[in-house]
């Protein structure tokens, strides 16, 4: 009975948000798609070129490389982010000493601007003036010293690490709110039954937070596939394209070469790819009921 | 060419006045006041001027004084200085596209770069030639005569002969060296490539890395190949192949020669230790700290680093070394003037012209040279005292050539500088670099 | 916060335990002792992990503060990790005036707060039917919201600019706030849907049995249980709006309407093209403090306050 009453609120509840989204997002998006079928000049004149921008994409090794790196960035960053963020969020929900302090401290880097954080980490990674290489040498591990950002094999993980370090607070906030939402009586019951914390975590908490995890993973994918700031400031895609991701490539195409039509096509293609990837992730991570 | 905007702005929707001002009456577009006697037509009014100097820098201070002067002389004048450099450009250019341009702006025109003549071709910029040909009220000579003839090609649109910008300053690409260190080690400033190699050896013997360079910004590494090819290939030929898509890079032996010389620097370990992971601020700072003996950079280096150059640091500059037997231009210097243009749709064209005239006056240019170390494109302006030797570089320059062959604004950018980085990082040798460049250039130019 | 699990109700309604008495005291007085779990061995690993992170954060802030106290010459000329020779508070006054903090601050507060409130409130309403009322097309609507997170600003900003121009919203704080709210929506909706789905399904039935309509159920039963989720998205939205740079740069050009990130951008440019680093760091400290305060406030008051307070009423 209450289901019928509930249905009456669907439209009024959704409408205001959809209205804003329609005007300031969907409408510009449609226009972006429109632009992607044109050749734009710097002065804004355009001529229709059909799907040429899209066919060009797949012959463009720069775009393919940027996509590959974007996936890599997402994967590497995700592996750095989630285990640590989950561990921290879980830890903050254990009744530990100084929890309030730790909560604050984990969040704090988020408020610093990317420019300042990137600068600091560029110094940390600096091959001779930095902190890492001298420390490694001090520990007798000089063989592990690298030029970090200047090494095609370490640059991407190094930038991903900086990105994760800077933004982890957001994920911890979300995850920790998820842990807080867990019904305490269930956990209490588990504890009374003598389940260890690890066991509780694995068999009670994780399954209960499955929906939240799935959403956060999707959010991470969507966010990191479009990552821009740290790569732009720290390596600008170098060394020789090894950190070039779709965001930095599009920036160059749009604002250095002024090929907006092509940049728009890159953006639209990225959106399609992300839609596909997130759908797959959604399917994979969903075991139970089929809701969306 | 006619501009087709994707959407015609809805006049009724223009509630925000600022958004519409300046965009309005199209009938005034493109037609400035009569050239003769424009100076008597100046009327006070609002003027929005794009500037390259950020808030809190001495460069902005000079411009603000210039604005105050204009406001004092013409009643009702209100000059807004809008930051219009680098990351601000996307927004600024969108305003141009939408019919809300700044009255005076940077970066809208460069006669040597096809990517930067489009605004003039589309009628967005005022042709300054008629005004520049009028006698300057202060000097009695045509305003145009103030500028060094070497920069005219940057100001002039090859397609119609109009002049769409005047340079407020000039950046020259030069080889900076640590003069104190050179004297101490008994090294001569490198005029030729052999001098440079000798200097490298001597510096290394003295325990100093020869050349500071950043590995984290590819165009700065590319400066080396740009300059070597200038000497071994020549400007016009190199430009045609690299960005013009005419011919192939394998056809002129000068390209490989240049790459081999670059490889030699790498094989000699001439570059700063760890340059691969050193960003440009750090690389420049390390040069001024004496960690490296030389750095190839634009003349802006001194004004950029002014705050942090040690008081006892002795700086020297020379033009990029000549290459004996090189087939290219041995006397050419790479340069980039910063050019200001005036919007054809500006409602205060005479006032905008007066801003440009005052900014390019000998007086203002001299202040800029002396106080912030800018090199001027205006005749009779002393060269900046902070860059000893730059006057000689200018005097000896047989020609000024546009920096980087327009690579950074062309699709060739995706090919050329990454390959140069690979060469410098030791990933490949000169021959492999040439082959990969050939492959990439054929792809982007479709030839 | 998280530890006082006793303030939350058992999931299937039932009379909630009253919230713990005002936790004003410091240290042990803040909580009842029995709240804290006895020390276990794995706590060591937790402390190690948190300690490492805390150390890196504290180090980062100390470094930023240290640099903000240096001269440019010191910063560039000595190793980046040396301690400032002197305390140069004048860097702060330089930053204050160069970044126009005095006049930009108010704009940032107005735009960020209004956009955050709008974005969170609309998202909460939109998330509810998506999470808990099964209807045909809910998947599509959710995908549309998800799409909102996927579109890179580098390519949509031109159409957005044109749209804003058509609406007469260019160069206005209202326009900027609406854009921010819109771009907060997808994230907020997505996260809130996630949280709402973790609530037990019997909530609505129980409320319906008590005779509450769906709107009342949402406002009185669901929203109060969303405390931590709402606080989280509020914090994150506010942070994004407070720091947002690109849309502000493109959509605002009158100095009297600019926000703080545009001031910070000026400082960043002065650093990049004039090595004036120390002022940038001082400016960073100035703009960071309000956000840290907001976080501390939201963390300590809203997270608990919302949950506990709402349950009382």
Automatic annotation (TrEMBL), chain A:
Q: Where in the cell is it found?
A: Cell membrane
What GO terms in the biological process aspect are recorded for it? transmembrane transport
Q: Does the keyword Transmembrane helix apply?
A: yes
Main location per the UniProt record? membrane
Q: Which intervals hold domain ABC transmembrane type-1?
A: 67-281
Write out the transmembrane intervals: 9-30, 70-92, 104-124, 155-175, 212-234, 260-281
Keyword set, alphabetical order: Cell membrane, Membrane, Transmembrane, Transmembrane helix, Transport
InterPro entries found in the cross-reference section: MalF_N, MetI-like, MetI-like_sf, UgpAE/MalFG_permease
Q: Which GO terms describe its cellular component?
A: plasma membrane
Task: Determine if Thylakoid is one of this entry's keywords.
Answer: no
User: What family does this chain come from, according to its entry?
Assistant: Belongs to the binding-protein-dependent transport system permease family.
Q: What is this protein called?
A: ABC transmembrane type-1 domain-containing protein
Organism of derivation:
Jiangella anatolica
Q: What is the lineage of its organism?
A: Bacteria, Bacillati, Actinomycetota, Actinomycetes, Jiangellales
TrEMBL record, chain B:
Q: Pfam families annotated for this entry? A: SBP_bac_1 (PF01547)
The cross-references to PROSITE patterns, in alphabetical order and at most eight, read: PROKAR_LIPOPROTEIN (PS51257)
Q: Which residues form a coiled coil?
A: none
Give the signal peptide range.
1-21
The answer to keyword Ribonucleoprotein applying to this record is: no
Q: Does the keyword tRNA processing apply?
A: no
Task: Kindly state which keywords UniProt assigns to this record, in alphabetical order.
Answer: Signal
Transmembrane stretches, by residue range? none
Q: Which top-level group of life is the source organism from?
A: Bacteria
Q: Output this protein's name.
A: ABC transporter substrate-binding protein
UniProtKB/TrEMBL annotation, chain C:
Which residues belong to any copy of the ABC transmembrane type-1 domain?
105-298
Domain of life of the native organism: Bacteria
TM regions (residue ranges): 44-65, 104-128, 140-162, 174-196, 217-239, 277-298
Q: Tell me, which GO biological process terms does this entry list?
A: transmembrane transport
- Predominant localisation class: membrane
Keyword terms of this UniProt record: Cell membrane, Membrane, Transmembrane, Transmembrane helix, Transport
Q: Where is the composition biased (Basic residues)?
A: 21-31
Location of this chain's protein in the cell: Cell membrane
Q: Where are the stretches annotated Disordered? A: 1-34
Q: How does it sit in the membrane?
A: Multi-pass membrane protein
What GO CC terms are in its UniProt record?
plasma membrane
Q: Which CDD domains match?
A: TM_PBP2 (cd06261)
Q: Which family does it belong to?
A: Belongs to the binding-protein-dependent transport system permease family.
Protein's recorded name: ABC transmembrane type-1 domain-containing protein
Organism, scientific name: Jiangella anatolica
């Amino acid at each position: 009975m209450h289901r019928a009453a509930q249905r009456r609120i669907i439209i009024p509840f959704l409408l205001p948000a959809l209205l804003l989204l329609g005007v300031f997002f969907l409408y510009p998006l449609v226009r972006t798609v429109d632009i992607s079928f044109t050749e734009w000049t710097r002065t804004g004149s355009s001529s229709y070129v059909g799907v040429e921008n899209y066919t060009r994409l797949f012959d463009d090794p720069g775009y393919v490389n940027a996509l590959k790196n974007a996936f890599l960035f997402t994967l590497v960053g995700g592996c750095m982010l989630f285990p640590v963020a989950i561990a921290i969020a879980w830890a903050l929900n254990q009744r530990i000493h100084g929890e309030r302090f730790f909560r604050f401290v984990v969040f704090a880097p988020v408020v610093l601007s990317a420019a300042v954080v990137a600068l600091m980490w560029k110094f940390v990674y600096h091959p001779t003036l930095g902190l890492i290489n001298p420390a490694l040498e001090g520990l007798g591990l000089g063989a592990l010293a690298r030029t970090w950002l200047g090494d095609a094999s370490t640059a991407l993980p190094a930038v991903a690490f900086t990105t994760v370090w800077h933004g982890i607070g957001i994920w911890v906030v979300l995850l920790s709110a998820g842990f807080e939402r867990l019904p305490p009586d269930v956990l209490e019951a588990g504890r009374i039954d003598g389940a260890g914390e690890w066991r509780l975590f694995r068999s009670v908490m994780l399954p209960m937070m499955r929906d939240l995890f799935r959403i956060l993973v999707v959010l991470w994918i969507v966010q990191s596939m479009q990552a821009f700031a740290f790569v732009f400031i720290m390596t600008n895609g170098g060394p020789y394209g090894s950190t070039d991701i779709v965001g930095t490539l599009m920036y160059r195409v749009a604002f250095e070469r002024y090929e907006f039509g092509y940049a728009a096509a890159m953006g639209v293609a990225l959106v399609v790819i992300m839609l596909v990837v997130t759908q797959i992730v959604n399917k994979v991570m969903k075991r139970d009921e089929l809701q969306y | 060419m006619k501009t087709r905007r994707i959407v015609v702005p809805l006049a009724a929707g223009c509630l925000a006045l600022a958004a519409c001002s300046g965009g309005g009456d199209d009938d005034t577009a493109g037609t400035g006041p009569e050239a003769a006697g424009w100076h008597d037509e100046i009327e006070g009014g609002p003027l929005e001027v794009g500037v390259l100097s950020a808030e809190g820098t001495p460069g902005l201070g000079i411009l603000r004084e210039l604005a105050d002067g204009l406001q004092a002389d013409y009643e009702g004048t209100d000059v807004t200085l809008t930051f219009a450099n680098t990351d601000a450009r996307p927004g600024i250019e969108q305003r141009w596209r939408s019919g809300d341009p700044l009255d005076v702006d940077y970066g809208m025109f460069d006669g040597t770069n096809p990517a930067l003549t489009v605004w003039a071709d589309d009628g967005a910029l005022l042709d300054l030639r008629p005004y520049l040909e009028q006698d300057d009220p202060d000097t009695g000579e045509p305003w145009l005569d103030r500028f060094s003839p070497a920069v005219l090609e940057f100001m002039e649109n090859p397609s119609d002969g109009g002049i769409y910008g005047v340079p407020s300053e000039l950046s020259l690409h030069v080889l900076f060296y640590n003069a104190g260190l050179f004297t101490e080690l008994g090294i001569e400033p490198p005029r030729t490539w052999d001098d440079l190699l000798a200097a490298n050896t001597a510096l290394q013997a003295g325990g100093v890395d020869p050349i500071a360079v950043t590995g984290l910004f590819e165009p700065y590494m590319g400066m080396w190949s740009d300059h070597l090819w200038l000497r071994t290939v020549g400007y016009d030929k190199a430009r045609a192949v690299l960005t013009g898509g005419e011919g192939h890079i394998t056809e002129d032996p000068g390209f490989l020669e240049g790459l081999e010389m670059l490889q030699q620097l790498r094989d000699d370990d001439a570059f700063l230790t760890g340059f691969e992971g050193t960003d440009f601020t750090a690389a420049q700072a390390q040069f001024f700290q004496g960690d490296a003996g030389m750095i190839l950079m634009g003349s802006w280096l001194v004004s950029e680093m002014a705050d942090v150059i040690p008081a006892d640091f002795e700086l020297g500059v020379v033009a990029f070394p000549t290459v004996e037997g090189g087939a290219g231009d041995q006397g050419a210097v790479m340069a980039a003037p910063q050019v200001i243009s005036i919007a054809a749709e500006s409602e205060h064209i005479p006032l905008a012209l007066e801003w440009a005239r005052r900014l390019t006056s000998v007086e203002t240019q001299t202040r800029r040279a002396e106080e912030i170390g800018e090199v001027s494109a205006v005749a009779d302006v002393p060269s900046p005292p902070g860059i000893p030797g730059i006057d000689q570089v200018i005097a000896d320059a047989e020609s000024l050539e546009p920096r980087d062959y327009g690579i950074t604004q062309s699709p060739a950018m995706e090919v050329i500088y990454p390959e140069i980085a690979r060469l410098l990082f030791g990933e490949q040798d000169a021959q492999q670099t040439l082959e990969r460049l050939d492959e990439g250039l054929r792809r982007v130019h479709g030839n | 916060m998280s530890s006082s699990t006793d303030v939350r109700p058992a999931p299937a309604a039932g009379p909630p335990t009253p919230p713990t008495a005002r936790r004003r005291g410091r240290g042990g007085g803040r909580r009842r002792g029995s709240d804290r779990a006895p020390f276990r061995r794995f706590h060591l690993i937790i402390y190690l992990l948190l300690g490492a992170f805390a150390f890196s954060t504290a180090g980062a802030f100390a470094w930023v503060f240290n640099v903000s106290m240096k001269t440019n010459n010191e910063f560039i000329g000595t190793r980046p990790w040396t301690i400032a020779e002197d305390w140069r508070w004048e860097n702060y006054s330089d930053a204050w005036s160069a970044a126009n903090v005095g006049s930009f601050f108010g704009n940032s507060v107005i735009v960020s707060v209004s956009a955050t409130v709008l974005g969170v409130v609309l998202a909460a309403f939109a998330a509810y039917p998506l999470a808990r009322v099964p209807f045909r097309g809910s998947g599509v609507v959710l995908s549309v919201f998800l799409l909102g997170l996927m579109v890179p600003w580098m390519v949509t900003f031109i159409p957005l600019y044109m749209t804003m121009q058509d609406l007469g919203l260019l160069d206005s704080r209202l326009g900027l706030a609406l854009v921010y709210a819109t771009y907060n929506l997808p994230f907020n909706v997505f996260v809130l849907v996630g949280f709402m789905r973790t609530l037990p399904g019997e909530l609505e039935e129980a409320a319906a049995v008590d005779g509450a309509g769906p709107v009342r159920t949402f406002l009185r039963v669901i929203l109060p249980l969303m405390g931590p989720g709402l606080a989280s998205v509020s914090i994150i939205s506010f942070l994004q709006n407070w720091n947002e740079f690109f849309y502000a740069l493109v959509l605002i050009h009158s100095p009297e309407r600019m926000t703080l990130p545009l001031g910070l951008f000026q400082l960043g440019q002065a650093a990049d093209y004039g090595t004036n680093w120390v002022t940038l760091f001082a400016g960073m400290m100035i703009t960071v403090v309000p956000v840290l305060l907001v976080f501390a406030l939201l963390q300590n008051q809203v997270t608990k306050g919302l949950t506990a307070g709402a349950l009382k009423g």
